[in-house]
Design goal:
Blueprint: E1 3-12, E2 17-19, H1 20-24, H2 31-38, E3 42-44, H3 50-65, E4 74-78, H4 89-97, E5 102-106, H5 112-125, E6 131-139, H6 149-152, E7 157-167, E8 172-180, E9 188-189, H7 195-199, E10 208-209, H8 211-233, E11 242-245, H9 250-259, E12 267-268, H10 271-274, H11 281-291, E13 300-307, E14 311-318, H12 340-347
Parallel strand pairs: 4-5, 4-6, 11-12, 11-13
Antiparallel strand pairs: 1-7, 2-3, 6-7, 8-14, 9-10, 13-14
Helix pairs in contact: 3-4, 8-9
The structure holds coenzyme A.
Coenzyme A binds at residues 29, 33-34, 37-38, 110, 149-150, 153, 188, 209, 211-212, 214-215, 248-249, 252, 276, 307.
């Protein structure tokens, strides 16, 4: 059966670090609270646009696959923090990479990468495209509300990317399932970043979240999604070699793993270093897991995600023979001499570091 296999991967995590201690210097929180309740130690704040981060991750993924941008039939950027409403981040990525394949952004919030992978797999299975670049890229620091300590400590910026190619072999996406419960749309929202904010500048463009409700739904729904995806792939929980969950909260990841009765050693996490990077979190984790040798040829990799909407989804993949990059390239973006806190201060009204 024709399906999509991942043949290249890459990531871009901005150099400017925002530690828990940095946050504790400007809001009423502590390193101990943040680590205990979320598992986060630090996150990154971007000094470049979403499109630049997305392109940097994409260039690595293309080099890893030994392909170029103009060989892509499709570019999807999963994001809920695009630089502009029009055109898409994906169009700007294509502007930097070349090519005339289809481009689109996909907003399923933090589930975006699993959604985009599933869409690309469907288009490959249908024969519409042969190769696609799938990117998760987010600049959620733009939406941080430092008056709300329950959300301000959770999010960070970054991008991850994969190149997928049609295969008739045993590797690739074995199954996926995508869901959403729109009745829960208000428990996680960024209202003013859309046209609501254009018509009424008083609508805040910051994250508004009922943390406990999101937490409860995340654990239940990600577990359900994984079970259905496994069934559809004809596999059991014991067959999972590596679980890559959306990195939102270490307690959510641990609770989901317990619910699935999955061996904790199979769970890859990097939330301590980047916080919640929304749609970017799974491809960043995947890229790091591969580079650290955590994924072996033929491994069954499960991806599970949830996010605003409330969306959730899961994908089961069998890895191919190659777990190393064809080429490894350094990023060509300019650096920054600003700290994470200085970059955040520049975009958060009322934050005076003096
Ligand atoms: C946000 C979250 C970390 C809060 O953890 P929690 O254990 O549920 O904490 P609660 O909201 O019950 O708050 C407990 C206490 O900590 C306080 N608190 C909240 N944020 C705090 C912070 N950053 N620092 C210190 N104290 C904080 C609260 O005010 C509350 O104090 P009170 O008991 O005196 O009222 C957790 O609910 C969560 O991760 N939810 C899911 C969020 C998520 O994943 N969102 C993204 C989806 S893609």
């Amino acid at each position: 059966m024709r399906r999509a296999a991942i043949i290249g991967w890459g990531d871009y995590t901005p150099p400017a670090v925002l530690s828990n201690m940095d946050l504790a210097s400007v809001i009423d929180t502590s390193d101990e609270w943040i680590q205990t309740r979320s598992g986060i130690k630090e996150r990154r704040i971007s000094h470049v646009s979403n499109a630049d981060m997305a392109t940097a991750a994409a260039k690595q993924a293309l080099a890893a696959a030994d392909l170029s941008g103009d060989e892509m039939d499709l570019i999807i950027v999963a994001t809920c923090s695009p630089d502009r409403a029009v055109p898409s981040v994906a169009a700007y990525v294509q502007r930097q990479l070349g090519g005339v394949g289809a481009t689109m952004d996909l907003n399923a919030a933090c589930s975006g990468f699993v959604y985009a992978l599933s869409v690309a797999n469907g288009m490959i299975a249908a024969g519409t495209v042969n190769r696609a670049l799938i990117i998760g890229a987010e600049r959620l620091s733009s939406f941080i509300d430092l008056q709300d300590r329950t959300t301000a400590v959770l999010f960070g910026d970054g991008a991850g990317a994969v190149v997928v190619e049609a295969t008739e072999g045993p590797e690739g996406v074995l199954s996926s399932n995508l869901h959403s419960d729109g009745s829960l749309s208000e428990i996680l929202t960024i209202r003013g970043a859309g046209t609501e904010g254009v018509f009424d500048p008083d609508v805040p463009h910051t994250v508004d979240m009922e943390g406990r409700e999101v937490f409860r739904n995340a654990v239940t729904r990600m577990g359900e999604g994984a079970v259905v995806a496994l069934e559809n792939a004809g596999l059991d929980v014991e067959d999972i070699d590596v679980l890559i969950s959306h990195q939102a909260n270490i307690r959510i990841i641990d609770a989901t793993a317990r619910r699935l009765s999955i061996d904790p050693d199979t769970v890859y996490t990097n939330i301590h270093a980047y916080g919640n990077t929304s749609a970017a979190s799974i491809p960043i984790a995947l890229s790091e897991a591969l580079d650290q040798g955590a994924i072996k040829p033929g491994d069954v990799v499960a991806m599970v995600a949830f996010g605003g909407g409330l969306t959730w989804g899961a994908a089961i993949l069998r890895w191919g023979d190659r777990v190393t990059r064809h080429h490894r390239i350094e990023h060509d973006l300019p650096g920054t001499d600003k700290t994470g806190l200085e970059l955040l201060a520049a975009r958060v009204r009322g934050l005076d570091l003096a």
